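Sample intake sheet
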Amino acid sequence: MCLAIPMQLIEITGEGLGKVNSGGVKTDVNIMMIPHARIGDYLIIHAGFGIEVLDKEEAEIRLDLFKELAAATAQEEEA
C-alpha cells in the first residue's frame, strides 16, 4: 500500500526542488510535477515527489485524520 502525506512547502531550493515540513519533519522533495507550487502551499508528497497542491482546509482535514489514526494505533498497542 502506498501513502501520500500532506506537507507544507517551506522553501524552493532549486529548479524543480523544494523543502517541505509536516509536524516538524522536514525533507527535500521534487516538485517538478507541480511547477505552480508556491512557498506556504500544502502539497501531497509521495515517494519524495510533490504530486498535488491542496488548499489549506483540505490539508488540515487530512492531517487531522493521520493524527487520529496514530492515536488509535497507539491505543491498540497499549492494550
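Comment: The chain has a mean pLDDT of 92. The beta strands are 5-14, 17-22, 25-30, 42-46, 49-54.
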